[in-house]
Sequence to fold (545 residues):
Amino acid sequence: MKIADSDIVDMFLKRNEDAIRITSERYGSRLRSISFRITGNIQTAEECENDTYLEAWKRIPPSEPRTYFMTFLSRIARTISINRIVSDHRLKRFAYVEELSSEMEQCIASSSSAEKELDAKLLLESISIFLKKQSKEKRILFMRRYYYLEKTSIIAKQFGYNESSLRSILFRLRKELRDYLEKEAII
Amino acid sequence: MNGKDLLFLMSDADSELIEESEIVLDTSKKQTTNQILILSIAGAVIVGLLIGITLFLKTSMKSKTPSDNNLKLEELSCIIFLNNEEDLEYHSADAADRTRYGLSSDISDVKLSQSDIGDYLGSVSGIKNNSREDIVGKKAYHYSKYPESKSIIIVDIEGSYSLFCSYGYTIDVPLGNSLNDAFAKYGLPEKGVKIEIYNHSDKLVRTITEKSDINKLICIFSDCRNIGYTEQNRRLVQAWHDSYDNDYVYLDEKTGSISFKDITLDERSQKGSSSEKQAGIETGVETGVETISEVSRLPIEDMANELWHKDSLKLIIEVEEGFCIILNYCPVSKTISAFNGAFDLTEEKTESINSFTE
Fold:
């Protein structure tokens, strides 16, 4: 019988170590895949996957992600994976993170943002509102690039774009996002 | 907060957005035979039902057309072609386009009237997105308020519409030919409105609106000949050799593409990384890391990309109809990439382009 996510979270809360095994069986490959897309290295991805379980073990409790367990795990895996790239320059993807950071910079770069202390929560909320006003496909393209850190060549292939068209779409999206954040006085 | 902070911050992005894009990842996995069989049967049932419902609606509701003030506009992200204009690409209108056409930036607020639809242009003949084949063959109408911009609306299935804007021509420039014909198709230089120049980090470094400057830049590019990507790649490989004095990067003569030798960091160290390190410093490669020893830690692909994109520029030429032409200027290979080719630049032209960013 399939165990519900909320039951797995209950096992974490009760400090039942089977929770990690079950989580690994159910979500291991997806977490590994998230990490692999970010780090580009299978061994590192496996290490990040294991670190994700440990981090989840530490965070539950107090967190109780009964209704968003996979998202909860994916966020942890993503953060751990990016941290690994940044802390270990030998990983192939270090320069790639620099490239993505530079793209993200365009979304928040404005004449006033240099002096302004940005409210992270407000910024994220505004980005969500902006993305939800976009078409589903554009939202997904943005998330695939800036949440899953996928290469444009891979996204382009899966969505049937040529790479330069996709880059133009992302470029325009970033520009629109910056305009929106400026208009809303977030940056 | 900088770009890297924001990249980290995205880990806490809205759950709905994460789940939505995760679902797409799942669906891209290979389907088993059983799943395909089940989907095929379900698809057949749905098609049957749709045919039944359509026949029922046709007979019972005769002519159901949307009322003038309540035309639903939907947003689709894909690139389409019309059957009578196959060389022109139409992209779905984004917020900037909607502002330009005087429509609300919020798609849910857009109200089109029947009269906006204008003339019937043709039907959608092709599509650059596998998931949107369902709109191929649908009627495409001119959006009459902006005939000069060639924006159109596409009739969708249940009386709802999607707005698309012409983005540019799909132009093939044969090897040896110049950019002149392609520019002429856009009405350049006469129709040039603006040229934006972005650096290799996509930061806007200059906007040119002076007609004389626009003409001068267009004139520089116009007679550049298409030497093809193989020749461009050959030059990039040569630039690698000149900088690093090794053959880790080479041209695959069969395909004309660039290949990288599969070589570990240890092997690179043994094979004399001193030239690699030294070259990294001498050429001023921006690697994101500063010390000599760390330069050689970067993968070859990244080192090569850093070298090749150094001082590269992206020029976006906007013309009167709102079309945009993107030119990628690569000083390392002395080429400009545009449309389907790589165009040769002389030393003199390279200097002239550089003078526009100084």
User: Anything to note?
Assistant: The radius of gyration of chain B is 26 Å. Residues 25-40, 55-69, 277-296 of chain B have pLDDT under 50 and may be disordered. Residues 220 and 244 of chain B are 32 Å apart (CA to CA).
